[in-house]
UniProtKB/TrEMBL annotation:
It comes from Pseudodesulfovibrio mercurii. Gene3D superfamilies: HUPs (3.40.50.620). Residues 3-154 form the UspA domain. This is UspA domain-containing protein. InterPro entries: Rossmann-like_a/b/a_fold, Universal_stress_UspA, UspA. The lineage of its organism: Bacteria, Pseudomonadati, Thermodesulfobacteriota, Desulfovibrionia, Desulfovibrionales. Belongs to the universal stress protein A family.
Length: 162
């Protein structure tokens, strides 16, 4: 694994942005890094909306907000000294609303394992994620992406930022 290949998984939260800023500070404008910002789309449940139109509208809003967040996160890394060529981002659409032409899609069943799959395929040796701040009860019932990453990542460094 190449530890200068850094995958930063983001979800749009303040802790996620804090993780990006932390990575920028640690990498401190060093050269030779390959940083991938990745967001795996997790759409709201269709049943929570009265009709397809309102659900689709919410999905589009969420998608645009996350794409804007990825741009903001890339700007934070560049402001921290990384070059634009060292930073790229990837938005992985949900298979439930996969747009025409999307190469990959997420089934949303296990975000942590999807992150690890991307890391494995890309040879990323360092994973960075913000802690979501879920309660112990929520973590027990639903799990935690950061917790699953820690337990399933092999031969990789995992930075969990609060």
């Amino acid at each position: 694994m190449d530890f200068k290949k850094v995958l930063i998984a983001v979800d749009g939260s303040e802790n996620s942005l804090r993780a990006v800023r932390y990575a920028a500070a640690i990498l401190d404008g060093g050269r030779g890094y390959d940083v991938l910002l990745v967001h795996i789309e997790r759409l709201p449940e269709r049943d929570m909306f009265p009709d397809e139109t309102s659900w689709s509208g919410q999905c589009r809003e969420h998608s645009q907000a996350m794409r804007d967040f990825l741009d903001r996160a890339a700007a934070e890394l560049e402001a921290g000294g990384l070059s634009a060529g060292e930073v790229c981002s990837q938005y992985i659409d949900s298979c439930a609303a996969r747009p025409e032409g999307a190469e990959d899609c997420s089934h949303g069943r296990n975000i942590a394992l999807e992150i690890l799959s991307i890391a494995e395929e890309g040879g990323y040796g360092t994973l960075v994620i913000g802690r979501r701040g879920v309660s112990k009860a929520e973590e027990f019932l639903f799990g935690s992406v950061s917790n699953k990453l820690i337990h399933h990542a092999k031969d990789r460094t995992v930075w969990v930022v609060s």
